[in-house]
Specification:
The chain is an alpha/beta fold. It contains 8 helices and 7 strands. Helix 6 links the parallel strand 4 and strand 5. It is globular, with a radius of gyration of 17 Å.
Length: 229
């Protein structure tokens, strides 16, 4: 992990340079109290939750703005980060963390979480700054597969895609650290305007409608909120 070079975006010190508070500042407060689900629970899946700092902050945010009891499942590919999230979990009755490679594992923990709450899908799925890592490691087809899967899991999908310059930065870091370059990087066809391409795909192929687009964060990214049509 020298020079910030990581293969899956699993930065150990991620929240030291991208604080949860700065990210949450661009989230809308008015979209979280209109749900089709029949009960008073609000289920959230946080894909790529890292050490859980934002997960816990989002739990408090949703509890305040939804008027429902919130339950969150945070998943991450890195077991060390999941261990940290479990150790710092201030809401163990409402937040659960599990190590999971969403693209390779069976997703059994997701099925168990939904089954426990007697639901077939989540109300909200968070995909914050992870689409690039899916794209770099699984290619164009892998990105579309990922987006279809997360779209099918919930009514509302929150995505914070990285722009193409972030791909270039991630690749340079791997080179400087004498690590293997992302094998699929040079094969990617979707490059220019990748964030817009993702948005168009979610609408045209996944049956979502865009209901919110945030201002740019200091990292020149936007948070997009989609809902089922």
């Amino acid at each position: 992990m020298a020079n910030g070079a990581v293969k899956f975006g699993n930065f150990i010190n991620y929240y030291q340079f991208n604080t949860p508070e700065e990210r949450l500042a661009v989230f809308p407060t008015h979209l979280w109290n209109n749900w089709r689900s029949p009960d008073d629970k609000l289920l959230v899946l946080d894909v790529g939750c890292n050490a859980g700092n934002f997960t816990q902050l989002f739990y408090k945010f949703l509890t305040e703005h939804s008027g429902r009891e919130v339950f969150i499942l945070g998943i991450d590919i890195d077991p060390i980060l999941i261990e940290r999230s479990q150790e710092s979990n201030a809401y163990p009755s409402n937040i659960r963390y599990s190590t999971l490679d969403f693209m390779k594992d069976s997703n059994e923990c997701i099925k168990e979480f939904l089954s426990f709450h007697v639901r077939e899908k989540f109300d909200v799925t968070l995909c914050l700054s992870i689409t690039m890592w899916i794209h770099l490691n699984h290619g164009d087809d892998g990105l579309w597969t990922f987006l279809r899967r997360v779209s099918s899991l919930s009514e509302v999908l929150v995505v914070e895609p990285q722009p193409w310059k972030c791909y270039q930065t991630a690749t340079r870091r791997m080179t400087r650290a004498n690590e293997e370059e992302f094998p699929l990087y040079r094969l990617l066809k979707n490059r220019t305007g990748v964030d817009i391409t993702i948005s168009k795909f979610l609408v045209s192929d996944c049956g979502k409608i865009l209901i919110y687009e945030s201002p740019e964060t200091k990292w020149k990214r936007r948070v997009y909120v989609y809902r089922e049509q």
